[in-house]
Amino acid sequence: MADNENVKTGLDYVKRDPNEVKWRDRKHHLWFPFSFTIYEVRNERLYVQRGLFSTSFDETLLYRVTDLRLTRTLGQKIFGTGTISVYTKVDTAREIRLENIKHSKEVKAYLSELIETIRDQKNVVGKEFYGAGMMDGHIMHDMDGDGVDDCLQGGPPPFN
Question: What kind of fold does domain 8-124 have according to CATH?
Answer without folding.
Answer: PH-domain like (2.30.29)
